[in-house]
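Box 3.1 A note on notation
Throughout this textbook, protein chains are presented in two layers. The first layer is the amino acid sequence; the second is a token string describing backbone geometry. Keep the layers aligned when reading.
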Amino acid sequence: MASIVAYDGGLRRIEFSLTPNGDRKAVRLGRVSAKVAEVWRAKIEAIIGDKLAGRPHDAELSKWLGGLDETLLGRMRAVGLADGVGLSQTTLAAFLDRFAAALTGKPATLVVYGHVRRNLEDYFAPTRLLRDIRPEDADGWRVWLVEHEKLAVATVARRVIAARTIWRRAIRWKLAGDNPFDGVKTGHQCNDARKVFVPRDVIDRLIADAPDVEWRLILALSRYAGLRCPSEHLALTWNDIDWAQARMTVHSPKTEHHEGGASRLVPIFPEVLPHLRDAFEQAEAGSVYVIARHRQANVNLRTQLERMIHRAGLTPWPRLFHNLRASRETELMREYDLATVCKWIGNSPGVAAKHYATCQDLNADFRRAAGLAVEPATVEKSPKGQAQQKAQQKAQQSAAVDDGQAMTSAGGELADEPENRGNVTCGPSLVTTGKSSKWTVQDSNL
């Protein structure tokens, strides 16, 4: 039923199967004597016999199992020989150590779980036993995240979901009997207050003031091509640029684990082309990467962009690079079908509607849809200017009724209104005038 296998000059393991001709499993013992290995073999055979007979272990075998250290006990649990053993002795810190050791994923994912671990240990204490954490404690932890840690609703939602995922691993490893985070309210994972549409004049001003050609290209790729920064910028090579077909192959480390998500074809938009050509002309001979000088590990592009925004006399907006990418997707959705735009941007329609789509000017769109004159976009109006504008609107409305012609704004012919593309929340719009900037929150209650 069980046998001792010696290998690598003194290492031993016990191999066994739970059923005749079943798959062989193994428990590694390390470098132990033949006598110790024989004891292990006898104990494992006794455990298998009890499992097949459906009877509890006797007192001696239970005491032996309970006396194993966490490493060996974990190896026994992994092969199904110590289910439920040691649950009362497992602390939060010991379990989270095991969870962290088994965790794989992108660096950002590891950082997120690191924050969740810190919150769990700060609230419950590392020495808290897993069996002592109850559903009411999990509810209290969520309240603590909001009231003590002052986390945003979306952040709280993500950390509750992560804690729930962590406990599922504890249940699968037989370290916990139930999940105290099941049923804990998560909340909305999308923070609409941090959605901002960044107008073209803002990014064009930053591009004009950029310190070098690479920074101009970084800004253009972010705002006008919708690339993720920094991962997709830094992965872009000159071999990925197809000048003849006006397209580029964008490699996406974030989505490479999804089918078809490793790369995508993106048009070289007219707003990007001159900056891409300038970078190509100034690139050193034999250069591989499009972004060469700003790819060092100690370079923080977000911090540098924030300084550039301040130097330009503007106010930094939330999620600097994400909102540049989201602003481009919002623009493209007004001109092309959603499926095409999502292929260029590299996300799904659901994600685009929930996390990317913003309102450029809800008031103007509403008035245009209702057949009313569209007010020119301004930050402030004097009383005289308001009177003049009202007179202009009245004249435009009269002309529209008499002639049956389409409404136009001061800026020219209006673009067609897109189809309803899902649940699009209207976030703030960054409106600038001169060397200052203001936040304008468009309200749907007109």
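The longest helix spans residues 383-403. The chain has four domains: 2-85, 92-189, 203-334, 362-440.
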